[in-house]
Every structure is written in structure tokens, then in C-alpha cells.
Design brief:
Blueprint lengths: L1 E6 L3 H12 L4 E7 L2 H11 L3 E5 L7 H11 L4 E6 L4 H9 L4 E4 L4 H12 L4 E2 L5 H12 L11 H11 L4 H8 L3 H15 L4 H12 L6
Parallel strand pairs: 1-2, 1-3, 3-4, 4-5, 5-6
Helix pairs in contact: 2-3, 4-6, 7-9, 7-10, 8-9
Length: 216
């Protein structure tokens, strides 16, 4: 029996996922969480086999939750369920030890297969994503032929442009309807991806790129 923890901030989504998964006798849902910090607490208490994570979560995003799970509880597998098919999201997820990436538009059978593959320690990519397209994207980054801006997620780009507009931490959090801690997580991810040591470098980068790029 594969023991699953569901993490999504929408109760209706969690309810739908529970019904889908528990219709398969191989699965049992052992818990649900609505934010990243609660998810980590339940991981420690319940020791699930697989954690299904939304990408955008209050308090800590899905990738940050997965990163902490991979660091502290290496036997627990993680899977992202997201509406974003941007290769930057997928590559970042896999770099942090996430084994599965499923699009919310996918068929039910894809999610069921993904959970079984991830539980077995195998990687799963939801169609139309593919290992080939992901590798091409990674190669472009490695060869430095890709603008670092293009490796950022949509949310990271939003934050970058708001920084360029002169908004501060609390203003950006309010504008994007996220917590200040979630903003801090995004800023940390931005600095790590862009190889910056301090926020001043990030703001400088934001100002330089705000002329050439518009928010999506």
C-alpha cells in the first residue's frame, strides 16, 4: 500500500485528488495539508511514501518543501502537481530531488501512473513534457546560450519586475497576495539561480532586465 500525503491550499482540489487516488486499491491518503509548513509537520508525523505537492503554496512553495524533505527524509518521494508547463519549473523541481512532475490538466490515469512510478523511485514527466525537451533546456543553460532571465519561473519574474519598480518586501507580498516568508523564499531562490550574494545585486539585475523584458 502506497501511503500518500496531499498538499494543496484548495480544499476542493484535495478532495478531488483523494477520491481519484483512493479509488485505486494500491493507494491510501494518510493526510492533507494546506500550506508548506503544515506539510513538513505532517511528513514528520506520518512518514508517507509519497508527498503530492502543489507548486504555489502559502508559507513555503512546493519546491522548497520538497528540498527540505529530500535533505531530512531521503526515503520519502515527492511529486509536483502544477498548472505550469514551463521547463524552468520542471528543471528546478528535478534538481531539488523531486521525482515526478504532473500537469493539472493531465488525465486521471497519468496521475495514478505518476504516483506508482515515483513510489518505485523512478522519475515521471507528464505529457506533453518530455525528458528530451528538458535535457535540451538544461543544455542551453549549461552552454550559457540562455539568458539567466529565461531560467526563472513566472512568479520569480513577477517579483523581479516589482523589485525594479522600487517595491519593498511587504509591498510585493501584498501585491502578489503571498506571505512575507513566501516572498523571502522566492528571493532566496532568485539569488541562488542568478548566483548573487546579496539583495543589492538582485535589484541591480532587476533594473537592467526591466527594460528588455515585460512580465508575462
Amino acid at each position: 500500500m502506497i501511503r500518500i500525503l496531499l498538499v494543496d491550499d484548495h480544499p476542493v482540489v484535495r478532495q478531488g485528488l483523494r477520491q481519484i487516488l483512493e479509488s485505486d486499491p494500491a493507494f491510501t491518503v494518510v493526510g492533507e495539508a494546506a500550506d508548506g509548513l503544515a506539510a513538513l509537520e505532517l511528513v514528520a508525523a506520518l512518514h508517507p511514501d509519497v508527498v503530492i505537492l502543489d507548486l504555489a503554496l502559502p508559507s513555503l512553495n512546493g519546491i522548497e518543501v520538497a528540498r527540505r524533505i529530500a535533505k531530512d527524509r531521503k526515503t520519502i518521494r515527492t511529486l509536483i502537481l502544477s498548472m505550469h508547463n514551463n521547463e524552468a519549473y520542471v528543471l528546478e523541481a528535478f534538481r531539488e530531488g523531486i521525482l515526478g512532475y504532473v500537469l493539472k490538466e493531465s488525465a486521471t490515469k497519468d496521475l495514478v501512473l505518476a504516483v506508482k512510478e515515483v513510489a518505485a523511485g523512478r522519475r515521471y514527466l507528464s505529457p506533453p513534457l518530455s525528458e528530451r525537451s528538458l535535457q535540451k533546456f538544461a543544455d542551453r543553460i549549461s552552454s550559457s546560450s540562455l539568458d539567466p532571465y529565461d531560467t526563472l519561473t513566472d512568479r520569480e519574474r513577477e517579483i523581479l519586475h516589482l523589485l525594479a519598480d522600487g517595491l519593498g518586501r511587504s509591498q510585493i507580498a501584498h501585491r502578489l497576495k503571498i506571505s512575507a516568508r513566501t516572498f523571502d523564499t522566492h528571493r532566496t531562490n532568485l539569488m541562488r539561480k542568478l548566483n548573487f550574494d546579496n539583495p543589492a545585486d538582485l535589484i541591480k539585475f532587476a533594473l537592467q532586465h526591466s527594460i528588455d523584458h515585460q512580465p508575462e
